[in-house]
């Protein structure tokens, strides 16, 4: 440990920070890279969001008004891909880059050059994906789940670009995950045992293992799509001895752990914020760690609950139903822990806390609909309807994204050295909270009443619900511009932030000044 | 922008209030669909109770234990008893949910002893129904007119949920569905039966229903299957068994007569006007979804028919591809979907519309040569 720190010291004497664009191109500093990840993710959030606006505008009324169905399908597909791989995942990687070294008392990430590369290949991946929309025949139009044979025999030639860009995203994620694991295993400050690590570090540690396990599976799936389409293989073509359902097994073996990749770091964030603003220790630290590990383990055993209608044997349906229901036990433990932490605390409602509280409630609602979806006989009715769309947007938007917002407000003073504008931030919160529910709650009803997902036009009985949903969508989209304003304002100035702006906060990151100096913990702190 | 939004928001309120839109899952018209509905409501109520307890505790905490009221934080944490309790109780609730769910699932998956079997085949973007042991099979296509979809005509009551030839089934009879696909994955779904089954190309899935009440039941394709995924509804008419028997016998007779008529047509020829008029109708119904009403297709996805080499010069190739399709592409074989007359007409239409003007007239006999090749 001390040799590593010594070497870092040594490097620093020769450090001449380049200026201008090269500072960002060549940087190996975890804070710079973290900032780039976060900005990139926010830009992708706006790009993916504007595609959602196109979708909601088309669905504002029955009939085809603005776009043709083929383009509509491209919008739903690319919206999903961008939000998953471009917005949520890079946001978490950005937070990990900024916070993990500072939370464990390390001077930087363990593999800084790889860190630079894992960020800088991302813009190319998304440039390729977005450029494919302008090809003849349009971009990918088979849903972010790219089920074969719609994505093979029946897709346009942009599929090759889609496959290539997913490969790059996967490489980036795997490198990021390796970096997190190596950093956490080797660079903890003396005394920082595993069971003393902040939960954000723990949840990311587990997430990183999930990433390494499943991103190669996704890479395999896209590669088989590529060879089926262009090189006459028949992995997913019955005429050549393949099986289209095999694709779904492979995809969801990646896809379900992927869902937890997008929520476990949220659990870590919320487990930091709720105790801070309740001024009370987290109720059950070790049970939170075990619950996270249990959720991660179970995530490998539930993939086929996405496929109940594909015609599985009853025994398989029962296994996947039970395994899926079981996930609600460790998830429940988490929610109960947060509530018990708040209980008899001394609660205040700054913006990070507001987003964290909204997270707990809305994520739990998403959990309830998840439990309903786990029940196989009823899933036959819910499957591929707006009920599912409502479910996963509750856990991903008012879940993952709200936790990212909470994290941003919580650590902005540390990143920028300024307090953000609390009034404007509260506007952002309340506008987001109301609009997100106007946007996603009625979708439950549309789905139950029988509206399939991924349709550009619908029968008249769904007209009212869709109009309300679209209005909520536009309002939610506009509300995020307030967030942009708050962040820019905070970066440019504002009230000076102390080293520890939140009196209840705990952790090493609050022991360094605000803004955090370019290099922190060059001498490792002693953790007791 | 904002004033328009507000106007739209205000406009939507009376609409929403007066709407008779259904907001919950249907109870359906079969014993299974009723059981599924009951299960759905049970789980929903359990979730509600848990929600009230958990969120209630949160709100009590948020109201009573706030710093602004001077509440001092307690210091308790970790309590093994409580933690075991909130692990075990949810587990027991789950067991309580799993029991009825498992029973219903077993009932749903038992397709044995069916009296009527229908082969349901999905293709882009229509359904095909074939009754086993009866000489009846047909395609079922969206009947909503393009003008309604494009907002040029007022939308009808069953907008997007109407087809030209619905599936007809008997009531009080166990009906088995064998579900498959000709191209991509589709999913055959009728909410009132609680039946949703994926149609996988190259594989056959099984489902069943036993309808309690005569009526018209509507559903849609539930799996994204390409451009017109939103435009391939399912409509089922359930009739009393005797009525069904009469209907299917009548259909058999009609199918037989149509075959004889086809043979007779082989020796007749139609005029250009007749061919073009019928051809346009068939084209708009069966071809325009991909090749577009103007014949120009969608570049990179669906080829253009306007002035292209095959249409202009290669008459045999043109007839062959329409009749037998092209393997490995979205181009289906229309030989078994359209009558000889319709095939002849639509090929003639394609060779003479949009300025193609080849002057070629195709007759039923010309098409017949390529059938069953």
From TrEMBL, chain A:
Origin superkingdom: Bacteria
Source organism (scientific name): Pseudidiomarina tainanensis
Protein name, as recorded: Cytochrome c oxidase subunit I
From TrEMBL, chain B:
GO MF annotation terms: copper ion binding; cytochrome-c oxidase activity; heme binding; oxidoreductase activity
Coarse class of the protein's main subcellular location: membrane
Entry's transmembrane regions: 43-64, 84-102
Species of provenance: Pseudidiomarina maritima
Domain Cytochrome oxidase subunit II transmembrane region profile: 17-112
Subcellular location: Cell membrane; Membrane
Signal peptide span: 1-19
Swiss-Prot/TrEMBL catalytic activity: 4 Fe(II)-[cytochrome c] + O2 + 8 H(+)(in) = 4 Fe(III)-[cytochrome c] + 2 H2O + 4 H(+)(out)
UniProt cross-references to SUPFAM superfamilies, sorted A to Z: Cupredoxins, Cytochrome c, Cytochrome c oxidase subunit II-like, transmembrane region
Cofactor: how and how many bound: Binds a copper A center.
Any single Pfam family the record assigns to this protein: COX2_TM
InterPro entries membership: CcO_II (IPR045187), CcO_II-like_C (IPR002429), Copper_CuA (IPR001505), Cupredoxin (IPR008972), Cyt_c-like_dom (IPR009056), Cyt_c-like_dom_sf (IPR036909), Cyt_c_oxidase_su2 (IPR014222), Cyt_c_oxidase_su2_TM_dom (IPR011759)
Protein name according to UniProt: Cytochrome c oxidase subunit 2
Recorded topology in the membrane: Multi-pass membrane protein
Function text: Subunits I and II form the functional core of the enzyme complex. Electrons originating in cytochrome c are transferred via heme a and Cu(A) to the binuclear center formed by heme a3 and Cu(B).
Domain Cytochrome oxidase subunit II copper A binding, chain residue ranges per copy: 113-250
Enzyme class, first EC level, given as a word: translocase
Similarity comment: Belongs to the cytochrome c oxidase subunit 2 family.
Keywords: Copper, Electron transport, Heme, Iron, Membrane, Metal-binding, Respiratory chain, Signal, Translocase, Transmembrane, Transmembrane helix, Transport
Domain Cytochrome c: start-end pairs: 274-354
Names of the cofactor(s): Cu cation
EC number: 7.1.1.9
